[in-house]
Design a protein that fits this description.
Belongs to the FAH family. The chain is mainly beta. The protein is built from six helices and 18 strands.
Length: 284
């Protein structure tokens, strides 16, 4: 199942049999059983899945991808994981963590999978990520039950202004990664059962057609179910919460010489089985 935020309305994405994606407006198709608010679906995730399995896709319509927004646009909590790929830790010159390295991206940074992102400074970096959205409350969840609490997966970019992120005696990770537009996700949420192997997903990004990052989630230090277990041992994960699971090697700050995004650059982000995001970087 794929769900999307289309023009700020919850939509179920269906294939009409010709390979063309069409959108079913959930509020209209359910006769108001579910609201149009994309964020409101996660506390009712199990009920929604049962309805979606028998929904009539007849009134589904074509749509423009540029009208898609973040599939979980207003999460109560955003948890982002640093140094969660071995090769990225190595390029950063840091040891692998013994437990997840956690920071946040403030929700005001969230944006959709297409459009312009304003550069916040001269050292804005790319970080492709697999993003998980919680579908069931998780508190002290064992690893083997971790996937049971995930509604679905989407693509994400943890855009980072490195100068702000690393300034001062104590780094400001959350601020440096939370400028407007620095948290794009999309193009939609895909349930794990739709993926060939939910534990081994290819992901990558390119700048102006040049590949910058390539990785596979099988190389994660802490897998998605491990993250659910580790995080829920400390705090309660709630439906609609978002987890940025980490980025593989190839970031601009780890290159020699370093390379950062500039006005006019096109950043294309791809996650296998989920889809592609496209953003153009523009000057302030």
């Amino acid at each position: 199942m794929r769900i999307a935020n289309l023009d700020d309305r919850l939509a179920l994405i269906v294939d009409d049999g010709t390979g063309t994606d069409r959108a079913l407006d959930v509020e209209q198709a359910s006769d108001g059983l579910f609201s149009a608010d994309p964020q409101a679906i996660y506390p009712r995730w199990d009920e929604f899945q049962r309805w979606a399995a028998r929904a009539d896709a007849g009134p589904a319509r074509t749509f423009e991808h540029r009208d898609l927004g973040a599939p979980a646009p207003r999460p109560g909590q955003v948890l982002a994981i640093g140094l969660n790929y071995r090769d990225h830790a190595a390029e950063s010159g840091l040891d692998l963590p013994d437990s997840p390295t956690v920071f946040t991206k403030f929700v005001s940074s969230f944006t959709g999978p297409y459009g312009d992102v304003v550069l916040a400074g001269p050292t804005v970096d790319w970080e492709v990520e697999l993003v998980a959205v919680i579908g069931r409350t998780a508190r002290r969840v064992p690893v083997e039950q971790g996937w049971d609490h995930v509604a679905g997966l989407t693509a994400g970019q943890d855009l980072s202004e490195r100068t702000v992120q690393l300034a001062g005696p104590a780094p400001q990770f959350s601020l440096g990664k939370s400028f407007p537009g620095f948290g794009p996700t999309g193009p939609w949420l895909v349930t794990p059962d739709e993926l060939a192997d939910r534990d081994d997903i290819a992901l990558g990004c390119a700048v102006n057609g040049e590949s910058m990052q390539k990785g596979r989630t099988s190389d994660l230090v802490f897998t998605v179910p491990q993250l659910v277990a580790e995080l829920s041992a400390v705090l309660e994960l709630r439906p609609g919460d978002v987890i940025f699971t980490g980025t593989p090697a190839g970031v601009g700050g780890g290159r020699k010489p370093q390379r950062f995004l500039a006005a006019g650059d096109e950043l294309v982000t791809t996650v296998e089985g989920i889809g592609t995001m496209r953003h153009r970087l523009v000057s302030a």
